[in-house]
Amino acid sequence: MHRQNRTLPFDVRTLTDGALVGISATGDHLFLHQDELDCLLNDPDKFPPKRKAELAARFFLPNHGRNVGKERLLAARRAAKRETVAAGPSLHIIVPTLQCGHTCQYCQVSRAQSDSGFSMTPAALDAACERIWESDADVLTVEFQGGDPLLRFDLIVRAVERLTDMNHDGNKRLRFVVASTLHQLTEEMCAFFRAHDVVLSTSLDGPEHLHNRNRPVPGRDSYRRTLDGIALARQRIGEHAVSALMTTTRASLEFPEQIVDEYVRLGFNEIFLRPLSIYGFAKRNLARVGYSQEEFQVFYERALQRILWWNQQGVPVREVYMSIVMNKILSTFDAGYVDLQSPTGAGSSVLVYNYDGWVYPSDEARMLVETGDASLRMGRVTDSLAQLLSSETRLQLIQASETAAADCTSCAYRHYCAPNPVDSQAQFGRPDVPAHQTEHCGRHQWLFDTAFALLHGADANSEEMFHVWARPSTTQEAACDR
Ligand code: SF4
């Protein structure tokens, strides 16, 4: 519900335990008692001075006599929330090859078993580097995805060296990430990555039996090889050279605590409890590996409780999805998680240069192609950045992700969240179905409810921990495109 009289505009959300959270137009929040809400709606002057100052500081009440400054501050706070989208493409995903040795049931990209026709040409790779360099963003993150990009290490070297040369005067900050199974990692690769500050991101789905079931490699021990890769990278590149991500399948649902414990045992201080994406191969195999949103919620809540328990034992480990949500709620500066941006970051802050020379607005959008839906192509890698950014696809995505439209206008979480047009396209074959019909909307309403319930029940230590979680970390930054 929206409220506006002698107050500034704000929304109220009732949590499952009956607690009321007020959210102002800047995204600031306050937990309210019912009598406080009544007072806010009917006679805000009755608040004691301290509470009144608190309500004014969080943009629920006007600050009499200083409203000009307040309006500017309000505009600045709103702009800060959109900064990552407004700054120009900053995350550039290059897919050097679709080859991969795994046969994961939930694979989103229909990996290829051979190089023929499934790897980027050097000319297309060079064109991708030119597009990246045309971006206005001061910080450029270049992520190599696949398939398994280490199978075309030569293309990674070519792009990293080319972009480093382009930045010879050091005007931009370049960050390189390679997302890989790490099965092909060698000492030579580690030496190159160390010399060029390249960090690695891998997939680890939990303990051995689960990882091998989710991510099989014909005739080989997938789990052991990934662990060997992690050990080699830590030894040769640095202790924090590798972050890991997990994907939740139906087989994972029984093992939330064991998955968290595995991450802690291996010394990771972050775990991203990712639901299955309904793209590519995963969509085809949904009946076998999928589950309902309710089942995911039960899994997630058990895993999150285990993470909180570890923190209480003095082992600092954070959950990345909740950290993204906490960043939205607690921080003035948005970490830029693409799926929750309005307008969407897909095609604006993120571009994907696929192995076949086409450019897509997000990793998920290129995955749709593997099941025959090429509607989200923005153009060819040889088109200029300006042409790509003015493509019909991008304009459609921006339009479909405005929270000012349709369902989101009545949602208390619209200052943190947005419709996800790429998800909508995957689920319904069009980017603009009403937000409430989408799985994305239901999941995020629940996640924001969960976050506020955690904050409402938090003691001083937990509150401090959630503020730490709200600051973007390496995995969280890497996750912002997914
Ligand atoms: S997508 Fe759903 S949860 Fe997100 S702002 Fe819109 S209505 Fe709210």
Automatic annotation (TrEMBL):
Segments traversing the membrane: none
InterPro entries reported for this sequence: Aldolase_TIM (IPR013785), rSAM (IPR007197), rSAM_paired_HxsB (IPR024023), rSAM_sf (IPR058240), Sulphatase_maturase_rSAM (IPR023867)
Gene that this polypeptide is encoded by: hxsB
Originating organism: Massilia litorea
Keyword Ubl conjugation: no
Superkingdom per UniProt: Bacteria
Keywords tagged on the record: Iron, Iron-sulfur, Metal-binding, S-adenosyl-L-methionine
NCBIfam families assigned: rSAM_paired_1
Domain (Radical SAM core) ranges: 86-311
One annotated GO molecular function: iron-sulfur cluster binding
Record-linked Pfam families: Radical_SAM
Keyword Cell cycle among record annotations: no
Listed PROSITE patterns: RADICAL_SAM
Protein name stated in the entry: His-Xaa-Ser system radical SAM maturase HxsB
Cofactor(s) required, per the database record: [4Fe-4S] cluster
